[in-house]
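Bumping my old thread because nobody answered last time. Still need a sequence for this structure:
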């Protein structure tokens, strides 16, 4: 429903390898990993335009998802990344993902591009680690404790009503506060087509932060600090652009996996939200972290998926998917500024064992997810080998590349103001 040419609904997972990989071996390892996880082969079930969306597991892929390319400099690689992630993989063919092996000077990069309707960030991470295990010299490809998929070859599974582009997280009782603050736009000049799609800003790895606040005897988690820092950064950015203050709301995906589903593939996340007024320069940042921490704990403790009223109404409506899609796009276009949260933070947490392809270890990892307008910006976080890796994904309709770099600087500075670095934190 949410996928569109200007803003693809996809998950981006990127690994910087400390050496070079063999493309043929990677292709075979990917095929073996997909065979071991039938849900990662999911495609939309065939049917007429009136049929409700449902998954089917074909048993084998319809196409080879692995591609290779070369690059000679960071600018060239950034352009290669943007082109590869400019569209989400099609859902009508299997698998709903693509993998790029990009060979550069002295190192390779692996980029996984998955349709967010089929896979979430944790599923992508697990799949990539499975590919690494099947790569020559890797560990046994079997994953202890993996649960058998609920549906296998040929059986259709209905889609859940929620999705990554939902206007906002569900709130108890359907009560909705005042519209959230929007990030002040600073788009590139030129024609509208120059503003389509996403840009990516990868921040240098930094020590995992430890909170300076969070309540008596309690630190904020890394996730709390990431959200609080984004609230501070948005406030500072908007103040510099002369935008009025208000209430900032940050979307926070929460894993909705049930016991025994820790390694299950699919989009098994629900959305929650954290809000705070635009902080003044003189505000107590420790109190802000404490407020955020209380809200994130409450959101994680709330059982079951919470879906916003718009998505719930559209899911329950008895009309063809094509009609629902048009209604949803119309709702986002007309009511989005009043319904949508300000921005989004998605944290995959700590990767205890970074993917190792044979003898070649991972030197860094980055992750991001889409942020449809009017959000227009998301922060993806992942911790690898004791280092926090951050990626800002932004809609070019909201920010130009130079503007995104300035916002990233504000975000990094806000995170430093909120934290004392050097200690490991909770997810």
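Sorry it took so long. Here it is:
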């Amino acid at each position: 429903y949410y996928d569109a040419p200007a803003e693809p609904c996809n998950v981006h997972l990127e690994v910087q390898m400390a050496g070079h990989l063999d493309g043929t071996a990677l292709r075979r390892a990917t095929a073996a990993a997909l065979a071991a996880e039938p849900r990662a082969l999911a495609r939309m079930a065939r049917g007429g335009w009136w049929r409700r969306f449902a998954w089917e597991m074909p048993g084998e892929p319809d196409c080879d998802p692995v591609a290779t390319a070369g690059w000679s400099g960071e600018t060239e690689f950034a352009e290669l990344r943007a082109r590869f992630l400019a569209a989400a993989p099609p859902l009508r063919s299997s698998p709903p993902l693509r993998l790029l092996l990009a060979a550069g000077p002295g190192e390779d990069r692996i980029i996984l591009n998955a349709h967010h309707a089929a896979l979430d960030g944790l599923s992508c991470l697990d799949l990539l680690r499975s590919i690494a295990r099947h790569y020559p010299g890797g560990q046994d490809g079997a994953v202890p404790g993996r649960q058998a998929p609920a549906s296998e070859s040929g059986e259709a599974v209905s889609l859940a009503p929620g999705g990554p582009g939902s206007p906002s997280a569900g709130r108890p009782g359907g009560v909705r506060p005042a519209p959230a603050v929007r990030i002040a736009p600073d788009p590139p000049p030129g024609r509208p087509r120059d503003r389509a799609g996403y840009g990516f800003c990868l921040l240098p790895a930094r020590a995992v932060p430890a909170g300076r606040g969070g309540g008596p005897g309690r630190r904020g988690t890394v996730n709390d600090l990431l959200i609080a820092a984004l609230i501070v950064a948005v406030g500072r950015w908007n103040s510099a652009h002369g935008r009025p203050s208000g209430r900032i709301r940050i979307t926070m995906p929460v894993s909705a996996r049930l016991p025994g589903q820790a390694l299950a593939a699919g989009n098994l996340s629900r959305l929650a939200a954290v809000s705070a007024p635009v902080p003044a320069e003189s505000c107590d940042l420790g109190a802000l972290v404490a407020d955020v921490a209380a809200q994130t704990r409450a959101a994680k403790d709330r059982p079951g998926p919470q879906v916003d009223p718009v998505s719930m109404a559209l899911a329950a409506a008895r009309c063809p998917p094509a009609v629902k899609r048009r209604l949803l796009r119309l709702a986002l276009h007309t009511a989005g500024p009043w319904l949508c949260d300000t921005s989004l933070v998605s944290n995959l947490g700590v990767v205890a064992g970074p993917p190792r392809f044979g003898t070649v270890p991972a030197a860094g990892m980055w992750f991001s997810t889409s942020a449809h307008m009017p959000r227009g910006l998301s922060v993806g976080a992942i911790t690898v080998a004791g280092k926090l890796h951050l990626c800002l994904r932004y809609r070019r309709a909201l920010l130009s590349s130079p503007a995104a770099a300035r916002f990233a600087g504000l975000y990094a500075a806000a995170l430093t103001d909120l934290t004392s670095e050097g200690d490991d934190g909770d997810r």
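The longest helix spans residues 222-240. Let me know if any region looks off to you.
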